Fold Penicillin-binding protein.
Amino acid sequence: MNIRTNILLRAYAAFGLIILFAVAVVAKMLHVQVVQGDKYRAMADSLSTKYAEVEASRGNIYSIDGSLLATSVPEYDIRMDLMAGGIEDNDVFYSKVDSLAAKLSNYFKDKSESEYSRALRNARQDKQRYFLVKRNISYQDLKALKKFPIFNLGRYKGGMIAVQENKRILPFRDLAYRTIGYYNMKSNTTVGLEGAYGDYINGESGKRLVQRIAGGVWMPVNDDAEIAPKAGADIISTIDVNMQDLAQNALKKQLIKSAADFGCVLVMEVKTGEIKAIANFTKVGEDEYKETYNYAIAQSAEPGSTFKLASYMVAMDDGKFGVNDIMDTEGGNYKLYRHTIRDHENEGVIPMKVAFERSSNVAIVKQIYKNYKDNPDEFTSKLHDLHLGEKLGLQISGEGTPLIKTTKSKSWSGLTLPQMAYGYELKMTPIQILTLYNAVANNGKMIAPLFVHEIRRLGNTVELFKARVIKDKICSDNTLNLLKEMLEGVVEEGTASTINNPLYKIAGKTGTAQVADGANGYKGKRKYQASFCGYFPADNPKYSMIVVVQNPTKGSYYAASVAGPVFREVADVVFGSDLEMDNQSKIPQLVGNTRMPEVKGKYKKSTQNVYKAFGVKALLASNNQEELGIDTNSGIAYKEVKMNKGLVPNVEGMGLKDALYVLGNSGLSPVVKGKGEVKTQSLIAGTPIYKGTRILIELE
């Protein structure tokens, strides 16, 4: 083979290899583009763009009267695309950047004009597309920023990017804080109504297309969500804002006075089971209390004497004793198994009704032990029949587990039965005790407490909640009536007589229980839990309430002195504010020769409205008809103030505030002497007024 042929063969081989390589490359390209195209296109898209979740606006939480307890408000992070279309030209950007910096500095007052200008210029040099300008601004701030230089060019030209986040706020701050609930970032848990109804409140997230830019930052491609989020539903709670505020203030005041560790108050509507107020406070510093734990729901502890209601109910319903049965309290000291049951005072020989009213431990222990010692399960099974050993199944999580022992319990001993009789060796939460007392007030029907009245979406009812009946009848009518009498007797002449109110009846029971001191048990430092549970008005109950104060260290530790005043304060205001309850109280009826109620000078219509609301009507035989100016047609007493322009008005009989208002509007300059209501005035009513004339009014 000659040299020429050899060279050609080599050239052809090299060319063929090149052709084969080219064909392989083309084939691979086709395979990648056609066969694997979808895979790699998705991979490429995922590296540069993706869909990010857009948080939905969470639903609101309202009180039963429509007050806003929790809501979401938008907050914005303001970022800037320094390479936006409207400012690509350096002349445009640098001619306006100082003006923008000045506006930002003057508006937020957090940085100087030069600091803002330098930051924006540096971001421009680095060609940043997602530069952070300001975090967490309000919608009003956002509207103001849109009018600033450069930003007023618009989203795509001016480069302003507003990233929205929703912030949860509580308009009433710490009002029912634990019950409303919140999200705990550390434990990734949500408590209260926020957690229990999160599926409704949270709504459904939307989606927005975002693009990855330099630095691994994801920037929204446009302002609008590709899939709009669905706002959450609204929760209508059972909380009454006024009662809640009242309960919190009364409780906190008593906790500070007693220097207690913690306390709680629950107010429940008898017929519906709706919780109108729930307050919990823990001591966090000297005279400082905050709501950190929901004791009313979660704190399962020995209730003490408030549990005697259950012991009396079971034994009386079983016919073991009656209210008039006599019991010897043995000087207030009863020894059993080398353990002494003590009374606060030596009650002597007393009927069981008096023993309940005076909270004798010895009397109920002797009765329960005598009647059930041979068959303790007879007693404990009745307690379980009352569902006292079961959770209530509340609408919010965290309910404490009750403990009602039986003879099968590992810790059962010879002392367990007598100890249970007066509220020891068993555990219940305040809301579980309240549910039992509420059943007595509700004529024997036991219902589960409610925290949520309704769920609404866009104004339409999604779900409406009504009371769930736990037990239709907790005891016989005869036993129920006797229990009601004894509960009223506790307040009228028993351990809680200090909270008796002559205007309406309160029924309830005190409880002063010794609390175990950790590992030292009852032999360590003595601590006490003071509680009062009851309902009002006793003759037609509308609300039940429990007050618990743990470890009062100042003053008395007895329930009547510690928990009782809180109950009385809340009940007084609630009763006085509720015309429906107030009108049911006994109002003295006016008869002939009875003076009408004194009336300060007012306008006729206002006086008539007040008298009508209170059901007070004038009597023709009233001996002060002429003095008051009786309108015999409508039966309303009034004394109308007639204002004659330019003449001295008659302000005698008025209070100081009304008198000053009337005299000031008449052009007179009043001088005041004394206090009370106006007795005399120096200028005669009906005489001409000269502007600036002084008038002396004497009050008495």
